[in-house]
UniProtKB/TrEMBL annotation:
Pathway assigned in UniProt: Glycan metabolism
E.C. code: 3.2.1.55
Subunit record text: Homohexamer; trimer of dimers.
Chain segments annotated as transmembrane: none
Keyword Phosphoprotein tagged: no
SUPFAM superfamilies documented for this protein: (Trans)glycosidases (SSF51445), Glycosyl hydrolase domain (SSF51011)
Name of the protein this chain belongs to: non-reducing end alpha-L-arabinofuranosidase
Length: 493
């Protein structure tokens, strides 16, 4: 087997890996908010102010930097005033977009900020352009952030919150080319200009305004938005899901063959091309890269689990998802000059979730474990390395077998993450680390599968979990790593 060679230049920094790349997304969709996070103060499930303690503790461990809410498509149907005040008076509503279920609005603005406080995450709120008014959006911002006497600040105080909250990230609509109003980019660009005018900075609160961005390879959307409104935004979003099969004919999260595995990896690598091309357009209007590319929805999208509500998007999560997460995070690191935030979809019980729940029980998915392992990269300096890495082939098509990223944290430790997407062959990687003395002590962690469909469920919650890893050797400035098939590893030097 050919050795894969990598050179890491530890003395050449490539910029900070923005911790917001590790952001999450929680929508009023299926069992993400209700059941997954919110169970209510009276629930027999242990909770803090209505939010389940087991899920909170697991999420806290991920150091989530930023959390997007309330949607998604839900955002453009959400009327925030229905979700404040005494719970018994809150209007019940139909979640028309997701399953047509009735929600009691017990999780609203105050509960969201409390969740962010408990997780120590920055709130990222997505406002309603599709079916909401400018006044409604403007009053929401006033309600949350106005310090002093004003109608909305007074109302907030009546509802128990004296001080304004700090709100940094605000999205002006979601998928306005689709569920957020079926608009043309020219029309949305004008609406964006108008709505964002009234997303005001009160006191010392400074809002980072995010415009609704393109779907996948809709480069015209990015072009028009940057041309017409680039100077009025701080960030522009992009949505891309990894969907084996097609949008119309999705595949199962379990019960796939190697062709399904390969296609999923190939579609994950496609994220790199998408970022490169959207960034290229942004570069023409914003060569200094002031405007961030905000990939506020990404991840796998499979068929729902048999027997579950089709509108709830509940899917299992295998070692395949772990590889998808690792590949994406590495790609985001490499584009840290333009990508300022990403939010995987979604945090609990929906799409490529961190956590699955069933009544009082909870399991951590393989994707959770990748986020846990990779959190060492948050805000660390990305290190220069040469592109690599081997070949994984199937039916005449090839992909890079191994993906690598390295960073140096504030304490000087170097962390290298690697993944081997080949489900059949190990990878032997020789890493030449230049520009630093390697320490005497090193350690490793690995997440690996025996079978492509390995996953955690309520019968076997720990089938896929990080183990200590000793499949590497440090010799002078050379690190030799043997990565098993379908694995993700973290080495600390
Ligand atoms: O994450 C699920 C849905 O996917 C979101 O609501 C929407 O924005 C996207 O189409």
């Amino acid at each position: 087997m050919a050795r894969i060679k990598v050179v890491i230049n530890a003395d050449i920094g490539k910029g900070k890996i923005n911790r917001n790349i590790y952001g999450q997304f929680a929508e009023h969709l299926g069992r993400c908010i209700y059941e997954g996070i919110w169970v209510g103060e009276d629930s027999p499930i242990g909770n803090t102010d209505g939010m389940r303690n087991d899920v909170l503790a697991a999420l806290k461990n991920l150091n989530i930097p930023v959390l997007r809410w309330p949607g998604g498509c839900f955002a453009d149907e959400y009327h925030w005033k229905d979700g404040i005040g005494p719970k018994e008076n809150r209007k019940r509503m139909v979640n028309t977009h997701w399953g047509g279920v009735v929600e009691n609005n017990h999780f609203g603005t105050h509960e969201f900020f409390r969740l962010c406080e408990l997780l120590d995450a920055e709130p990222y709120i997505c406002g309603n352009v599709g079916s909401g008014t400018v006044q409604e959006m403007s009053e929401w911002v006033e309600y949350m952030t106005f310090d002093g006497e004003s109608p909305m600040a007074g109302w907030r105080q009546e509802n128990g919150r004296e001080e304004p909250w700090k709100l940094k990230y605000f999205g002006v609509g979601n998928e306005n080319w689709g569920c957020g109003g079926n608009m043309r980019p020219e029309y949305y660009a004008d609406l964006y200009r108008r709505y964002q005018t009234y997303v005001r900075n009160y006191g010392d609160n400074r809002i980072y305004r995010i415009a609704g961005g393109a779907n996948i390879d809709d480069y015209r959307w990015t072009e028009v938005l940057m041309r017409e409104a680039g100077h009025l935004m701080d960030g522009l979003s992009l949505h891309y899901y990894t969907i084996p099969g097609s949008w119309e004919e999705k595949r199962h999260a379990l019960g796939f063959d190697e062709a399904g595995w390969f296609e999923t990896m190939k579609k994950s690598y496609y994220m790199d091309e998408l970022i490169t091309r959207h960034s290229g357009i942004m570069d023409r209007y914003d060569p200094d890269k002031r405007v961030g590319l905000i990939i506020d929805e990404w991840g796998t999208w499979f068929l729902v689990e048999p027997g579950s509500n089709p509108g709830f998007l509940y899917q299992q999560n295998t070692v395949r998802d772990a590889l998808v997460a690792a590949l994406h995070l590495h790609i985001f690191h490499n584009h840290n000059d333009r990508v300022q935030m990403t939010n995987i979809a979604q945090m609990v019980n929906v799409l490529q979730a961190m956590i699955l729940t069933e009544g009082p029980r909870m399991v951590l998915t393989p994707t959770y474990h990748v986020f846990e392992m990779f959190k060492v990269h948050q805000d660390a300096e990305l290190l220069d390395f040469n592109a690599c890495c081997g070949t994984y082939s199937l039916d005449g098509e090839s992909l890079p077998q191994v993906s690598v990223s390295a960073s140096r944290d504030a304490s000087g430790s170097i962390h290298i993450t690697m993944c081997n997407i080949d489900p059949n062959h190990e990878a032997v990687i020789q890493v030449d680390i230049r520009g630093t003395e390697l320490p005497a002590v090193s350690s490793g962690v690995i997440l690996a599968g025996q079978h492509m469909e390995d996953h955690n469920d309520f019968q076997q919650p720990d089938k896929v979990k990080p183990e200590s890893f000793d499949g590497f050797r440090v010799d002078g400035s050379a690190l030799t790593v043997t990565l098993p098939p379908m694995s993700v590893a973290l080495i600390k030097l």
